[in-house]
Design a protein that fits this description.
The protein has seven helices and seven strands. By secondary structure, it is α/β, with parallel strands linked by helices. A four-stranded mixed sheet has the order 1-2-3-4. A hairpin with a 5-residue loop joins strand 6 and strand 7. The radius of gyration is 21 Å and the shape is flat. The two termini are about 40 Å apart.
Amino acid sequence: MNAYDLCQRHVVTARRHEDLTTAAWMMRERNVGCLVVVDPAGIFGGWRPVGLLTDRDIVTKALARDCDLGSLVVGEVMTCNPATVLTTTSIEECLQRMCGTGVRRVPVVEDRGCLAGILALDDIFEHLAKRTPFAATPIRPDLRYEQYSRSRPAQPGNMGIDRI
């Protein structure tokens, strides 16, 4: 199993010069939390990832700083030089790369550096959950107890602690 096997191949992209509000609208319309910012890959054709724009970038780098959103472009807010993985990178290596760089998503690129997809931690977790459904079973009884105990009002003397 490699990055290309799990990645989303229909990637929503933006260009550096696009208006930030247009990019935010695209994120909302396509129901994504991240756009891959791309430049033409030159003679090879295709697109080369040069940045990522997340909903968090918009909030922390523009909105929270009280900037005029209408005057900003994607290139001013995006995270430059994103960590990438090759299509042939193993899932274990992808996880190590994501953890090492502190990101939840990585563009997947071909050996020439052209964008092939995007891989998110959620994609990996979903894959692992399908392969090992028993891994979550020890947690389920505690979750049922927690839901049960929250639904009951606290009784004097027991601080709301009951066992099923």
